[in-house]
Amino acid sequence: MQTIILGDGHLGWAIAAAAGERGERTPVLGRPAGSRHDPTAFLGADLVVDATTAAAVLPNVSAALEAGVRRFVIATTGLTTRDVLDTELRAHGASAVVAPNLSVGVALFARLVETAADLFGAVEGYDPYLLEWHRRAKSDRPSGTALELSRRIVAHHPRLSTAADLETVSIRAGSSPGMHLVGFDADGETIELRLTARDRRAYAIGALAAADWLRQAPRSPGIHTFDPVVDELLARRVAAA
After folding, report:
1. Fewer CB within 10 Å of terminal CB in the chain, N or C?
2. Is 134 one of the catalytic residues?
C-alpha cells in the first residue's frame, strides 16, 4: 500500500507527519509544473490524499485515475465540482471520501449542532447564528466547514428555509487555524457551542482514518461523506468497551 499526498501546505505536511508516526512513508507532491501532475507520478500508489485547492482537485484526480489509482481522500474546501468529480470517479470504478473538514471532532460537533437546532427550533424566541474565524490568508468565506454547519442547521430548524436565513459571520485575521461557533440567542439568555482548532493534527488524523476506511473493504464507486468513517470509528470503540 502506498499513499501519495498532494499539496505541500500546512495540511499536506501535517498528514505526512501523522502517517510517519504510524511508520508510513508518504511522499508529498507540490504544485505541478504544468496544468496537472504527470500520471507517472502516481505509479505504485493505491490511494491519493488531495490537500490542495478546489480548482486543482479535478486535474489531480484525472491524472491519478489515469495511473490506476482507485481510492481518494479529498481534504479541500470550497469544492464546487462535486457532481463532475462523482461522475469521473464512477466512470473508473473509483471511490473517494470528500469533506471540507476531516476532523472527527468537527464531525461530532456537527451532530451536536443538528440536535441543538432541533431543540431550539422547537421553541419560539431563540435566534440561531453562526460565526467562524480563520487565518487572514484563507480566501474562501464562509469556510467549507461553516457552509456544512449552515446546511445542517437549516435542515433541522423549522424557521429557516435557506442558508440566507441564517445570520453568518466570517472573520479573517491573524493565524487561527479555525474556530466555529453556533449560538442561539433569546431575550434572557444565550446558548453557544464552540469548536476551536489548535493545529491541523486533528484534520490529519481524520484524513488517515478516511484512508483506512477506504482500504478496509470495497466501497461503492463515487463520493462518500465522512459520516460513515466516523460511524465505524464510534462502533469500533463501543465494541471495544
Report:
1. C
2. yes
- The residue segments making up the domain with residue 126 are 104-196
| Catalytic-role residue among 10, 37, 92, 134 | 134
Residue 44 backbone dihedrals phi, psi, to 5 degrees? 90, -10
pLDDT in tens, 164-219: 999 999 999 999 889 999 999 999 999 999 999 998 899 999 999 999 999 999 99
* C-alpha to C-alpha distance for 168 and 152, rounded to whole angstroms: 13
104/110 Cα distance (integer angstroms)? 10
pTM of the predicted model as reported, rounded to 2 decimal places: 0.87
Q: 95: which DSSP letter?
A: E
User: Which runs of E-coded beta strand occur in the chain?
Assistant: 3-6, 28-29, 47-50, 71-74, 95-98, 127-134, 167-172, 179-185, 190-196, 222-224
**Domain boundary residue, one of 179, 196, 213:** 196
